[in-house]
Design brief:
The protein is of the alpha/beta class. It contains nine helices and five strands. Strand 4, helix 7 and strand 5 form a beta-alpha-beta unit.
């Protein structure tokens, strides 16, 4: 599906990276969206699992809802965390799937990836790793995962058709998605669709 917005996608990606680099590097900042461990608890993340997520990750949590409210992951499942940020969702997922499971986080922001890797090392999580990439073009073979989770990321992508096509491609035949994201009830104006600040926030 072609991108049908009158906006420079390269500029949009750069601004999104800049915003979430700040969430990573300046977690104490008041952003226009809520962040941090207290926010994850407000979203009813399992406290017993969240307690094992280091502050390194949790302080930069910027999700919009709780993808695990759609169901717990099963031991041994292969999970892709699409737009993994500082790694909070990945580290929660890693506890659910256990040592025989695997969690792969993918993000396009280097600062978030560095923070996620540090948090995984701090937590001693040996079944999770993080790689750089974009949701519209996933660097994985077909049917690589049992579950795709994502939290507040797909709404940031201009070509959502490509994202869902890639999710479908990398999921196994019985695969499922557990997505928490922002939706709207009325169409966005042309002017609004060109406003990068609305995309990044």
């Amino acid at each position: 599906m072609a991108v049908d917005i009158d906006i420079d996608v390269a500029v949009l990606r750069r601004e999104i990276k800049n915003t979430y680099a700040r969430v990573s590097e300046e977690p104490e900042t008041d952003f226009i969206f809520p962040t941090g461990r207290a926010w994850a608890l407000d979203l009813e993340y399992p406290p017993e699992l969240l307690a094992h997520v280091p502050d390194t990750a949790a302080e930069s949590f910027a999700g919009v809802a709780n993808p695990f409210a759609l169901g717990w992951l099963a031991p041994g499942e292969r999970v892709l965390d699409l737009g993994s940020g500082a790694g909070t969702d990945s580290l929660v997922a890693a506890q659910m799937v256990g040592e025989i499971g695997q969690v792969t986080g993918i993000d396009m922001t280097q600062e978030m990836l560095s923070k996620a890797r540090a948090a995984a090392a701090e937590a001693g999580a040996t079944n999770v790793w993080f790689i750089e990439g974009e949701a519209e073009s996933l660097p994985f073979a077909d049917e690589s995962f049992d579950v795709v989770i994502s939290n507040g990321v797909i709404d940031l992508t201009p070509d959502k058709g490509a994202v869902f096509s890639e999710i479908h491609r990398v999921l196994g035949p019985a695969g499922r998605i557990q997505i928490a994201d922002v939706t709207i009830q009325t169409p966005v104006s042309e002017e609004g669709r060109r406003n990068i600040d609305l995309w990044t926030g």
